[in-house]
Amino acid sequence: MPVIPPVLVAAALLLPALAAAQNTSTTYKLRYPAASPAERASLDQALAAEYAQTSATWTRPNGPVQGDTCTPASPTPVNPFTVSSTTVGATNDYDIATVCGTGQTLFGGTGASLDVTFGVVTDQNCSVTVTADPTGTSWDLALYVLQAPGAACIALPSLADSQCVTMDDNGGGDVTETVTFNATAGTQYFVIVDGFNTATGTFDLTIAGTGCNLVPVGLQRYSVD
Q1: What DSSP designation does 115 have?
Q2: How far apart are CA 184 and CA 121, in angstroms?
Q3: Which of 39-43, 46-50, 65-69, 117-121 has the highest mean pLDDT?
Q4: Best label site of 151, 153, 159, 164, fewest CB within 10 Å?
Q5: Contact between 170 and 117 (Cβ < 8 Å)
Q6: Cis ω on the peptide bond leading into residue 216 (within 30° of 0)?
Q7: b/e per residue, 26-39, with b = 16+ CB within 10 A?
Q8: What dihedral do alpha carbons 72, 119, 60, 42 form, nearest 10°?
Q9: 119 compared with 141, residue with greater pLDDT
């Protein structure tokens, strides 16, 4: 009787799980935009269950990490959080809402470019200030903050107005954008570094809480096809 290599056995066991995860994600992306509130809640629960099972095996680094989908927070706090990164080569996973916060100016091309995401959770109710400084070649950066959609905490092709907390796209190329919002302890927020129209580039990001710590959030890259 021939011996089947262990790697083939592992692959055979893994394929059904991958197919199920892909089907759940595809169903969510196709049905969510036009779904009723009740159906959206059901879709959120189904995807959250699949996501929790998959993410349980992921390594959770200390501090926020670039990506598009957040994992549960790890216990080591950090404040402030700073990083240098880029939107070049990223995916356009997020489109900004038609309304974002109060007194904010949204232009036609705001948030239409490639974007990267950072998860934020605070250990206490507090004020959080986010600063994104475009570096390198001249480019028009757009910055906004979204409250995570329920337990699923995933990237969506378009987000409801109520999920957009605040934004800043007041300047042109090479202008630093800054937003401040009141965070509720234990609530997931996404800081989105985006661009105007097709603008992309490198940036320095700082996330700082006043009167709180930023609970580290591990992020896994997720792309909406």
Answers
A1: B
A2: 8
A3: 117-121
A4: 151
A5: no
A6: no
A7: eebbeebeeeeeee
A8: 30
A9: 141
Question: Quick check: 96 and 177 in contact, CB under 8 A?
Answer: no
CATH of domain 61-220: 2.60.120.380
Per-residue tokens: 57: 């095996």
Residue type, 14: L
* Ramachandran assignment for 63, one of left (phi > 0), alpha (psi -120 to 50 degrees), beta (any other): left
Say if residues 185 and 178 touch (Cβ distance below 8 Å): no
**Average pLDDT for 49-59:** 54
Helix runs in the chain, H state only = 6-31, 37-55
Q: Tell me, rounded to whole angstroms, the distance of Cα 124 from its chain centroid.
A: 21
3-class SS string, 89-110: CCECCCCCCCCCCCCCCCCCCC
Structure-token match 């937003």, residue found = 179
The angle subtended at Cα 63 by Cα 61 and Cα 66, nearest 5°, is 85
Distance CA 196, CA 217 (A): 27
pTM beyond 0.90, yes or no: no
Strand ranges of the sheet holding 126-135, from the earlier edge strand across to the other edge: 81-86, 202-210, 126-135, 177-183
